[in-house]
Write a structure and sequence with these properties.
six-stranded antiparallel beta sheet; 15% helix; mainly beta; 233 residues; rod-shaped; 21 strands
Protein backbone atom coordinates (compact mmCIF):
# COMPACT_ATOMS: atom_id res chain seq x y z
CA UNK A 1 0.00 0.00 0.00
CA UNK A 2 1.49 3.33 -1.10
CA UNK A 3 0.91 6.31 1.17
CA UNK A 4 0.44 9.73 -0.40
CA UNK A 5 3.13 12.28 0.24
CA UNK A 6 2.57 15.24 2.50
CA UNK A 7 3.05 18.75 1.14
CA UNK A 8 6.80 19.38 1.13
CA UNK A 9 8.51 22.22 2.99
CA UNK A 10 11.06 24.34 1.13
CA UNK A 11 13.60 26.00 3.42
CA UNK A 12 17.05 27.62 3.01
CA UNK A 13 19.70 25.42 4.61
CA UNK A 14 21.79 28.50 5.46
CA UNK A 15 18.91 29.75 7.64
CA UNK A 16 18.33 33.05 5.83
CA UNK A 17 16.99 34.29 2.52
CA UNK A 18 19.34 37.27 2.55
CA UNK A 19 22.06 36.70 -0.02
CA UNK A 20 24.87 38.55 -1.79
CA UNK A 21 25.87 38.36 -5.43
CA UNK A 22 27.78 35.20 -6.46
CA UNK A 23 26.79 33.44 -3.22
CA UNK A 24 26.21 29.66 -3.17
CA UNK A 25 22.96 28.68 -1.45
CA UNK A 26 21.18 25.39 -0.74
CA UNK A 27 17.43 24.83 -0.64
CA UNK A 28 15.99 21.81 1.14
CA UNK A 29 12.74 20.26 -0.12
CA UNK A 30 11.23 17.66 2.21
CA UNK A 31 8.02 15.66 2.56
CA UNK A 32 8.03 14.15 6.04
CA UNK A 33 5.41 11.49 5.37
CA UNK A 34 4.46 9.25 2.46
CA UNK A 35 5.86 6.24 0.67
CA UNK A 36 9.31 6.46 -0.97
CA UNK A 37 10.95 6.72 -3.38
CA UNK A 38 10.35 10.45 -3.79
CA UNK A 39 11.08 12.68 -6.75
CA UNK A 40 11.66 16.34 -5.87
CA UNK A 41 11.54 19.04 -8.53
CA UNK A 42 12.62 22.66 -7.94
CA UNK A 43 10.94 25.49 -9.83
CA UNK A 44 11.84 29.16 -10.23
CA UNK A 45 8.98 31.36 -11.42
CA UNK A 46 7.17 28.19 -12.63
CA UNK A 47 10.22 27.14 -14.67
CA UNK A 48 11.83 23.80 -13.87
CA UNK A 49 15.32 24.17 -12.41
CA UNK A 50 16.37 20.68 -11.29
CA UNK A 51 15.06 17.24 -10.23
CA UNK A 52 16.30 14.87 -7.52
CA UNK A 53 15.29 11.25 -6.95
CA UNK A 54 15.49 10.18 -3.29
CA UNK A 55 15.20 6.48 -2.30
CA UNK A 56 13.80 7.38 1.12
CA UNK A 57 12.25 10.34 2.97
CA UNK A 58 15.49 12.28 3.31
CA UNK A 59 15.32 15.88 2.04
CA UNK A 60 16.28 16.79 -1.47
CA UNK A 61 19.03 19.41 -1.44
CA UNK A 62 19.25 21.83 -4.35
CA UNK A 63 22.48 23.81 -4.72
CA UNK A 64 22.21 27.19 -6.43
CA UNK A 65 24.45 30.16 -7.18
CA UNK A 66 23.03 33.68 -7.10
CA UNK A 67 24.58 35.21 -10.22
CA UNK A 68 22.14 37.98 -11.13
CA UNK A 69 18.99 39.80 -10.08
CA UNK A 70 16.93 37.26 -12.05
CA UNK A 71 17.96 34.61 -9.51
CA UNK A 72 15.87 36.48 -6.90
CA UNK A 73 12.61 35.02 -8.32
CA UNK A 74 10.04 32.91 -6.52
CA UNK A 75 11.08 29.31 -5.77
CA UNK A 76 8.86 26.30 -5.10
CA UNK A 77 9.37 22.56 -5.07
CA UNK A 78 7.14 19.59 -5.92
CA UNK A 79 7.20 16.15 -4.34
CA UNK A 80 5.96 13.07 -6.21
CA UNK A 81 5.90 9.32 -5.63
CA UNK A 82 4.24 6.43 -7.44
CA UNK A 83 0.96 7.25 -5.70
CA UNK A 84 0.91 10.93 -6.68
CA UNK A 85 -1.43 12.40 -9.22
CA UNK A 86 0.24 15.69 -10.13
CA UNK A 87 2.38 15.78 -6.99
CA UNK A 88 2.32 18.08 -3.98
CA UNK A 89 3.72 21.61 -3.98
CA UNK A 90 5.61 23.40 -1.26
CA UNK A 91 5.53 26.91 0.13
CA UNK A 92 7.23 29.60 -1.96
CA UNK A 93 10.52 31.35 -1.15
CA UNK A 94 12.08 34.59 -2.41
CA UNK A 95 15.68 35.61 -1.89
CA UNK A 96 16.57 39.16 -0.88
CA UNK A 97 19.78 40.58 -2.35
CA UNK A 98 21.83 42.26 0.38
CA UNK A 99 24.64 44.65 -0.51
CA UNK A 100 27.45 44.92 2.06
CA UNK A 101 27.86 48.40 3.48
CA UNK A 102 30.81 50.62 2.69
CA UNK A 103 32.97 52.30 5.31
CA UNK A 104 30.94 55.15 6.82
CA UNK A 105 32.20 58.73 6.77
CA UNK A 106 32.05 60.79 9.97
CA UNK A 107 31.92 64.55 9.42
CA UNK A 108 30.87 67.85 10.96
CA UNK A 109 30.12 71.33 9.58
CA UNK A 110 32.91 72.61 11.81
CA UNK A 111 36.19 71.16 12.97
CA UNK A 112 36.79 73.87 15.57
CA UNK A 113 34.79 74.41 18.74
CA UNK A 114 35.05 76.18 22.06
CA UNK A 115 33.74 75.43 25.51
CA UNK A 116 30.00 75.96 25.76
CA UNK A 117 29.36 75.37 22.04
CA UNK A 118 26.84 73.00 20.45
CA UNK A 119 28.25 70.86 17.62
CA UNK A 120 26.86 68.26 15.21
CA UNK A 121 28.27 65.01 13.84
CA UNK A 122 27.03 63.18 10.73
CA UNK A 123 27.64 59.49 9.91
CA UNK A 124 26.83 58.10 6.46
CA UNK A 125 27.58 54.89 4.56
CA UNK A 126 27.22 55.62 0.83
CA UNK A 127 26.66 51.98 -0.18
CA UNK A 128 24.86 49.02 1.32
CA UNK A 129 21.33 47.66 1.56
CA UNK A 130 18.89 49.54 3.75
CA UNK A 131 18.06 49.83 6.56
CA UNK A 132 21.44 50.73 8.08
CA UNK A 133 22.00 51.13 11.81
CA UNK A 134 24.53 53.65 13.14
CA UNK A 135 26.12 54.06 16.58
CA UNK A 136 28.36 56.98 17.63
CA UNK A 137 31.42 56.56 19.86
CA UNK A 138 33.77 58.80 21.80
CA UNK A 139 36.90 56.79 22.29
CA UNK A 140 35.64 53.23 22.84
CA UNK A 141 32.47 54.27 24.64
CA UNK A 142 29.18 54.48 22.77
CA UNK A 143 27.44 57.82 23.18
CA UNK A 144 24.20 57.03 21.36
CA UNK A 145 21.65 54.22 20.98
CA UNK A 146 21.49 52.54 17.56
CA UNK A 147 19.99 54.89 14.96
CA UNK A 148 18.24 52.92 12.17
CA UNK A 149 18.00 54.80 8.88
CA UNK A 150 15.42 53.57 6.34
CA UNK A 151 16.66 56.05 3.71
CA UNK A 152 20.11 56.90 2.33
CA UNK A 153 20.54 59.70 4.86
CA UNK A 154 23.17 60.45 7.46
CA UNK A 155 22.57 59.66 11.12
CA UNK A 156 22.98 62.78 13.25
CA UNK A 157 24.06 63.38 16.83
CA UNK A 158 24.12 66.73 18.64
CA UNK A 159 26.85 67.33 21.22
CA UNK A 160 27.60 70.01 23.78
CA UNK A 161 31.27 70.87 24.28
CA UNK A 162 31.48 71.30 28.04
CA UNK A 163 34.99 70.21 29.02
CA UNK A 164 38.43 69.43 27.53
CA UNK A 165 37.50 65.73 27.40
CA UNK A 166 34.79 66.57 24.84
CA UNK A 167 37.56 67.30 22.33
CA UNK A 168 38.38 63.56 22.26
CA UNK A 169 38.32 61.19 19.29
CA UNK A 170 34.91 60.39 17.79
CA UNK A 171 33.92 57.51 15.51
CA UNK A 172 30.75 55.87 14.25
CA UNK A 173 29.81 52.31 13.33
CA UNK A 174 27.47 51.14 10.57
CA UNK A 175 25.84 47.75 9.99
CA UNK A 176 22.96 46.24 8.04
CA UNK A 177 21.30 42.81 7.82
CA UNK A 178 24.24 41.26 6.00
CA UNK A 179 26.02 38.97 8.47
CA UNK A 180 29.43 39.96 9.84
CA UNK A 181 29.43 43.24 7.97
CA UNK A 182 30.16 45.91 10.56
CA UNK A 183 32.23 48.89 9.45
CA UNK A 184 33.83 51.70 11.48
CA UNK A 185 34.31 55.24 10.22
CA UNK A 186 37.31 57.52 10.15
CA UNK A 187 38.28 59.27 13.37
CA UNK A 188 37.16 62.84 13.98
CA UNK A 189 38.55 65.34 16.48
CA UNK A 190 37.34 68.81 17.33
CA UNK A 191 40.12 71.34 17.86
CA UNK A 192 39.93 74.17 20.38
CA UNK A 193 39.03 77.45 18.73
CA UNK A 194 41.27 80.29 19.87
CA UNK A 195 39.29 83.01 21.55
CA UNK A 196 39.95 86.53 20.35
CA UNK A 197 41.80 88.88 22.62
CA UNK A 198 39.67 91.54 24.37
CA UNK A 199 42.09 94.21 23.12
CA UNK A 200 41.47 93.30 19.48
CA UNK A 201 38.11 95.15 19.19
CA UNK A 202 39.72 98.23 20.81
CA UNK A 203 42.56 98.18 18.28
CA UNK A 204 40.08 97.88 15.42
CA UNK A 205 38.02 100.79 16.79
CA UNK A 206 41.09 103.01 17.15
CA UNK A 207 42.16 102.13 13.62
CA UNK A 208 38.75 103.11 12.25
CA UNK A 209 38.82 106.42 14.14
CA UNK A 210 42.28 107.20 12.77
CA UNK A 211 41.15 106.31 9.25
CA UNK A 212 38.15 108.61 9.57
CA UNK A 213 40.41 111.46 10.75
CA UNK A 214 42.70 111.01 7.75
CA UNK A 215 39.72 110.98 5.37
CA UNK A 216 38.28 114.07 7.07
CA UNK A 217 41.62 115.91 6.78
CA UNK A 218 41.86 115.00 3.10
CA UNK A 219 38.36 116.31 2.44
CA UNK A 220 39.11 119.55 4.30
CA UNK A 221 42.12 120.47 2.14
CA UNK A 222 40.12 121.95 -0.80
CA UNK A 223 37.88 124.00 1.48
CA UNK A 224 40.21 125.31 4.18
CA UNK A 225 43.91 124.76 3.48
CA UNK A 226 44.05 125.84 -0.21
CA UNK A 227 41.87 128.99 0.22
CA UNK A 228 43.97 130.07 3.22
CA UNK A 229 47.14 129.61 1.19
CA UNK A 230 45.83 131.68 -1.73
CA UNK A 231 44.66 134.44 0.60
CA UNK A 232 48.09 134.72 2.10
CA UNK A 233 49.59 135.27 -1.37
Amino acid sequence: FLEMLSNPMLIPVQGTLNVVMNQNVTLSCHSDSGSPPVRYTLFKCSQKVSTLNMPDLTPGLFNLTINSASDMGEYKCKAENNNSSGGKYSNSLNFTLIEPISKPVLSSPTSQAKKGQNVTLFCLSENGSLPISYIFFKGRKSISPPVKMQKREAAVIFLFINSPSDFGTYKCRAENSFCNNTKYSNSFNFTLEEERSHSQPLIISLGLILLLLVIGFALAIPFFIIPSYKASE
